[in-house]
Amino acid sequence: MTTERLSDSNKGNSGDSISVGTHSTSLSSQPRPLTLELLVSVDLAKTGDVEMEPRISGLDFMPDGRLVVVDNANKKCFLLNERLQKLGSPHKFINKPMGVVCLSQNELAITCGKDVCFLSVSTDNIIRMRRTIHTSSKFSSICCESPSKMIVSTYDDSRPARMLSVDGVESDFDYVELPYETYKVGESACTYVQSKNT
User: Fold this and answer.
1) Which residues does residue 86 pair with via DSSP β-bridges, in sequence order?
2) Which residues, in sequence order, are bridge partners of residue 4?
3) What pLDDT does 174 receive?
4) Residue range 25-46, pLDDT digits in tens
5) How many CB atoms lie within 10 A of CB 171?
6) Distance (Å, rounded) from C-alpha 160 to C-alpha 86?
């Protein structure tokens, strides 16, 4: 049995909120009951430093426990500590960011339509843009398949999921049958479960 962090984004009447809890899971094939415990939550609309009501489109934990949050409506990403308190200053984007994945101890990849932005995060919570890859497809969600390859969901594209290397090489799945269906932004997302290689 393992204990991991669980993150959730819920839309309520007063704006987006973020909650962090714990859960216990087993990798056996038998379904098991899941118990969640709310540890802490924050209402981002009440923080006072946002132009528009936040729309959280991406979350990921860094290896040291900091939470990376992507606010699509305000075109920024920022860091939270384990008590969901903001750390450092947010990074502003020109285009609306969508998904985020932590690639290493201090590197993030964030999707922004036909761009994937690579950012570094310092131990003193400074977020810096390092480079941008321009892609042929519009990407929303993003996750790691390996340290050098990411899996991304698309929108306005007949291929709902694609692969992208950290060097910018785009590829399609050869041995996975995906429906050739075009989704609009927000209608589709994907993830990769490393323990099951799926």
Assistant:
1) 80
2) 23
3) 78
4) 444 566 788 888 988 888 877 6
5) 10
6) 34
The answer to whether 59 and 67 have CB atoms below 8 angstroms apart is: yes
Is residue 19 domain-resident?
A: no
Answer whether residue 12 shows pLDDT above 60.
Answer: no
Q: Residue 153's domain is classified under what CATH number? A: 2.130.10.10
Among 36-40, 42-46, 75-79, 186-190, the range of highest mean pLDDT: 75-79
Is residue 145 a part of any domain in this protein? yes
d(CA 140, CA 155): 7
Tell me whether residue 60 is in a domain: yes
Tell me the C-alpha distance between 163 and 150, whole Å: 6
Give me 100's structure tokens. Answer: 């985020």
Strand partners, 8: 19
What is the rounded CA–CA span in Å between residue 86 and residue 105? 19
AA letter at 172: D
| pLDDT above 90 (res 10) | no
Q: Whole-prediction pTM value? A: 0.79
Among 119, 195, 116, 183, smallest CA distance to 151 is for 116
What's the rounded Cα separation, in Å, for the pair 54 and 72? 7
Do the domain assignments include residue 159? yes
Q: Which residue range(s) make up the domain with 151? A: 50-196
Query: If you count DSSP H runs as helices and E runs as strands, how many of each does the chain have, helices first?
Result: 0, 13
Burial class (CB in 10 A: 0-12, 13-18, 19+), 167: exposed
